[in-house]
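Session log. Operator J.P. requested a structure for one protein chain; no other inputs attached. Running the standard single-chain path with token output.
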Amino acid sequence: MKRETLLRTFAGLLLTCCLTTTHAEERGYWRAASSSARNITGDLTVAEEKLTINFYSTTMSRIRALEAAEVSAVFDTDSSAGGTGSLYRLNIPAAKKFQHKNSLCGSENVQWMAAYAAGNSLQLAFFSGDKPPVFTFDAIASSTDRCGTFSYVR
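Structure written below.
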């Protein structure tokens, strides 16, 4: 009886650990790598429920994990490359200016962020619009809500 309880407890802890680390790769301090990241956001920090860009912090909520095909559609990566992707809900006002007085999405508020972390690299894509973005190649190619894609390294 005690052994069975111990095994169930261990299995529960293992499952909890696996579920909570699926997007842990995205967390931490990231240095701007792409020219768009250097010119607009600069370095940033991703925490459990907070995104900090150029000393501006906003809360965010993880909505769901992204499938490999969805990550591939947004970030033009190999769908078998590994790494983790997530969709977040946040609100960054259009009036908020970052590096060189640039905004993330022109005159639109940023409502969504897709993140993909693999090893020491992070890619972020920001979207406007009330509805969640659709992550297919066709939808991304014709999307008017996609604000930009940015690359970072550790």
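Operator note: The radius of gyration is 17 Å.
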